[in-house]
Amino acid sequence: MVPGASDTTAALNHAPAEAFAGDCCLTGGLPIYRSLISLSVLLTLITVILSAYIRLAEVGIGCEPWPACYAQLDAELEKKGVTVLTTQGQDMAHRGARIAHRYIASILGVLVVGIFVAALRRGAQRTVGVAVPTAVLLITVFLSLLGYYTPTRSNPLITMGNLLGGMAMLGLLWWMMQREAEQIEENAVAGRWRVWARVGMAMIALQIVLGGWSSANYASANCPGLIDCQPELRVADIPDAFNPARDIALDANGKVIASEALGLMSMTHRLLALLTAAYLAWLVRALKSQRELGATLATLAAFSIGQLLLGVSNIWFALPLLMLTLHNALAAGLLLTAINLLHRLSPSAGSVPPPSPPGHHPR
Ligand code: HEM
Predict the structure, then answer these.
(1) Ligand 1, atom 18: nearest CA belongs to which residue?
(2) 22 has a pLDDT exceeding 70
């Protein structure tokens, strides 16, 4: 039994953003600083979705005839580490997405530098530690270098760097935005539930890693049925399936050679998704008496159910490009909602617990 699971009736103390609007000294907020962060959150979300769309289109997700055209790379270009478009991919309507991605990412780079400088200048008035804007800046530099120097599709670690870097940047900016917008007071109930919210966030992050790993290794076509993989799953393949340094081998025509471990990657992602959904359902139920968390919990539940249905539909309809892109968008949505929950359960710097009424001992 989770400590305090039965006691979720005490109100959480937090003040809405409006309470601080125009008051620079309570949260130390400068309108331009806040706008920079909000705009960056929006642009990062768009970039994450565009990047998923481009990546999936280029490796042939949704191509015809499926799955023969999938995972068809150009062996010569791959050796040189150059971006590879499948023959089918070149004809796909994602050129606009590439151009939009390039411009938006460039604007984002400038905004992130602006946020970093502004955050440093705010000193003690910052609502997050300096590590957060610094991490955002470092991830931005990492992503630009990754995109510029290693645009290849045959190294799963590079694909993972791209996917996880984008999600991490989005999550950190979103955390900054919320800490700026709302002052959260310490509260005994929130204190007890923080750790469980962190576990939920970690499970969602793990799901993103597993889904990305499966996709980066071209496992998508190996389990066409919901729980039916070809060839059959073998425990002996676990070390290969989850070896971070595993290679992707191409045949003479540039087609990715399907290894026996691929099914394990897909199935781990799918089965752990059930565990994640069950955990989130428990968390939502346990916190439902906290009225202030109503919108966050409803969003978490809706996204979790939506992601389950979308995941199953992806398999049912043989991975349509837009549907798998939407799966990425919903993964981002789940992550942001879990971060929002954590934010609402985490006191702002300098907040003090409200005095307990005489004779009351919070558990
Ligand atoms: C918490 C829930 C989930 C999250 C956060 C999540 C996240 C992801 C992510 C980030 C990807 C990578 C997509 C890409 O490469 O762009 C992915 C791939 C995929 N996901 Fe999920 N997913 C979840 C649940 C599910 C469920 C319930 C299913 C189906 C039962 C599913 C089926 C798939 C499939 C088929 C792929 C393509 C790669 C593969 O074949 O393994 N996902 N997921």
Answers:
(1) 211
(2) no
The finding on whether 259 has its CB within 6 A of some atom of ligand 1 is no
> What is the identity of the amino acid at 20?
F
Answer whether residue 33 is part of any domain. yes
Question: What's the domain range around 325?
Answer: 22-344
Tell me how far apart the alpha carbons of residues 255 and 91 are, in angstroms, rounded to a whole number: 18
60 within some domain: yes
Q: Supply the residue whose CA is at minimum distance from atom 43 of ligand 1.
A: 211
Reported as a single tens digit per residue, the pLDDT across 169-205 is 999 999 999 999 999 988 888 889 999 999 999 999 9
Regarding the beta carbon of 338 and ligand 1, being less than 6 Å apart is answered no
- For residue 52, the model assigns a pLDDT of 95
Q: Decide whether any atom of ligand 1 lies within 6 Å of the 273 Cβ.
A: yes
Number of Cβ within 10 Å of residue 154's Cβ equals 24
The 8 Å CB, 24+ separation contacts for 136-144 are 136/112, 136/169, 136/172, 136/173, 136/176, 137/112, 137/113, 139/165, 139/168, 139/169, 139/172, 140/108, 140/109, 140/112, 140/169, 143/105, 143/169, 144/105, 144/109
CA 218 to chain centre: 20
Q: At what angle do helices 31-58 and 321-344 cross, to 10 degrees?
A: 150
What average pLDDT does the structure give for the chain? 86
Is the CB–ligand 1 distance for residue 203 below 6 Å? no
Whether ligand 1 lies within 6 angstroms of the CB of 208 is answered as yes
pLDDT at 39 over 90: yes
Between residues 8 and 294, which one has the greater pLDDT? Answer: 294
Answer whether 220 contacts ligand 1 (Cβ < 6 A): yes
Residue 331 lies in a domain: yes
How many structural domains are present in the chain? 1
Q: Can you tell me which residue has the tokens 């290969």?
A: 240
Cα 327 to ligand 1 centre (Å): 7
**Residue 10 belongs to some domain of the structure:** no
Please report which helix (H) or strand (E) contains residue 136, including its range.
Answer: helix 131-149
- Nearest-CA residue for ligand 1 atom 13 is 212
Residue 189 alpha carbon to ligand 1 centre in Å: 33
